[in-house]
Amino acid sequence: MAIAVSGCVGLLVLGVSWLVVAVLLLLWLASLLLHYQAEPKLEPPASSDTISRENLTKLMEHSSLPLLVADGDRVVEVNILARELLGDHLVGQDIRIALRHPDAIALIEGTKEQATVRGLIRRRDIWQINRQRVNGSLTVLELVNRTPEADIGRAHTDFVANASHELRTPLASIIGYAETLSEDGVPEEKRARFLDTITREARRMSALVEDLMSLSRVEAEKHDQPRAPINLSEIVERGARDGAGPQRSGRLDLHIAPHIEALGDSQQIEQLLRNLVDNALKYGDSEQPVTVSLTRGQRDMAMLTVKDRGPGIPAEHIPHLTRRFYRTDPGRSRASGGTGLGLAIVKHVIERHCGHMEIRSEVGVGTEVLIKLPTAASNG
Question: Which PANTHER family match (predicted)?
Fold first, then answer.
């Protein structure tokens, strides 16, 4: 009896266990069903072309590059930079008519994703056009201006070529006269003249090398604004007198306001004055003074002027005077020992000191260089 009762209890317990498992299984399945029914039904997505068009429209206006979107052959979207570059009536045009360049059209009609196009807007400009297909028939064209990079490359090439030419000219004279002196039978008076020429050309080459090194240093430091306090009044007077030298100091007419303080590089400011005063004395009227003045202007700016009373400079030359090796009269400049780099150095010094330069000249009257430099008060 006891054994029978025990067996029935075991069967009962086993049955209850299976029943519990079944109930739990049903509850789990019911919870999954309720969860599925409670989830919001997702709407079918809009067409991929519509989504892309909306996203592109929002992003395009914030781009720093000109962008165009074409649907097939027709322009459907352009940002403000593309409108400024190519015109206001691009939307609806055939993309080939909008770009109007054989290389750009070849990119659109071909399989490449990138092309370099020369003369897209102006004769010497260079643009890189990147093409990216989006969805369906939509294509995005991105225009990247590579002209500044090419200009820098050309400027570097021109600079090296000009520097090489400027160095080669005095070097050729030195070698030629030295070889002549090494020959027998050269009269004494010619020997003295040849030695003078060699000395003059060697000094000219030395001055050119020194100016090239100065220009290189100034350009390397152009993003490093000077923070050292300097007495601008003392430095301007010292630089002007050094630029004139003892033989020409009598032609200087100085008007220097005292105690003007600034934050700057004293050596570079002195060099700036030496270059300006030397130019004014070389190319101004030898019988007239060169005026150097320093005053305190508006908004705590120091006003520095260097003025000669010479033949003046024609207006067409003035925008180019700060270019390297630019000369209004190459023969006269070389004869006077000019390197063609003085005003280029001045320009870079002024830019490093966050200043401004203006050159005013009138033919038959003279030339004035006006420089504005921030004082210590304006930096404080």
Answer: PHOSPHATE REGULON SENSOR PROTEIN PHOR
How many residues are listed for the chain in this entry?
380
Distance between CA atoms of residues 174 and 144, nearest Å: 49
Q: Which residues pair with 30 in a beta bridge?
A: none
Architecture of domain 226-379: 2-Layer Sandwich (3.30)
> Distance between CA atoms of 344 and 177, rounded to whole angstroms?
32
CATH for the 48-145 domain, from 3.90.1150.10, 3.40.47.10, 3.30.450.20, 3.40.50.2300 = 3.30.450.20
DSSP 3-state assignment of 372?
A: strand
Q: The whole model's pTM is what? A: 0.58
**3-state DSSP call for residue 176?**
helix
